[in-house]
Structure formats: C-alpha cells, structure tokens
Amino acid sequence: MGNYIADLLRAKYRTDFAISNGGGIRNTSPAKNYVPANTALVRTGTGPLDVTLGDALTVYPFGNQVATTVVTGTNLWAALENGGDGYLNVFSPAKAKVKGALLDVFVDALKADMAAGKVTQVPALDWRVKKVG
Q: What is the pTM of this model?
C-alpha cells in the first residue's frame, strides 16, 4: 500500500517523489478485518473484489494530511533513514503546503478506476522498499 499511495500522491501533486508514513497504513485493501454491512458484496478473495468506504477507512484510519514542500538532499536522506514517526528537522513547515486528506487521495483513485470501468489492482510488493540491518 505504501508504494501504491506514494505513486498516487506523486501523480496527483506532480512532485518529483513522495514519501508516505508507513505507520499510517493499518490494513490491506480490501481490508481483511472489515465486514461491510452489505453481505452481498464480493469478499471471497478471488477475482475482482468490492471495496467500500469502510475498507478505505480501515486502511487509512488516522485522518493524515498530505503536504508538499521543498526538501534538500541532506533532509531527504534523514527522512529515509528515520526509524518511525516524527520527522523533526527534516521537512520545513514554513515551506509546506497542506493539500488535503490522504484518505481522499486513495478514495479518489478508487472512484476514478470505477468510473473508467477499470479494476483497481491490489498493490503488490515490487521490492522498491527494503528493510536493511
């Protein structure tokens, strides 16, 4: 999901790169532990699956906001080396522009796929992110 949302953010805001807080992602899509009220939805795990707003809220439950800013190479390195929350002295809040809710970016992408008659592909691990050490 981190790769998927970073790609969506980069495309939507036309940035050179995007970083998403991995700790903000709390489930797969569709969510494994969310049961929609409509039991007629396809939740079998085979073929295209129905996704609801409840699924999206289960994946991104915290109301995280998206912001763009200018980042130096030194600060980008510090962000990539950070072990968790809190990117103190990495990003410049004075230069940041808050764009909106992360959840909205995800939901908008799902709606765009649906409007185009396209099945959203569940993001697969493509080895762009690696745990080292």
A: 0.79
Q: Is pLDDT above 80 for 71?
A: yes
Give CA angle at 19 (45, 114), nearest 5°: 40
Residue 99: per-residue pLDDT: 93
The secondary structure of the chain as a DSSP string is -HHHHHHHHHHHHT-S-----GGG--S-SS-TT---S-TTS--SSSSS----HHHHHHHS-S-PEEEE----HHHHHHHHH--SS--TTTS-TTT-EEEEEHHHHHHHHHHHHHHTTPPPPPP---SSS----
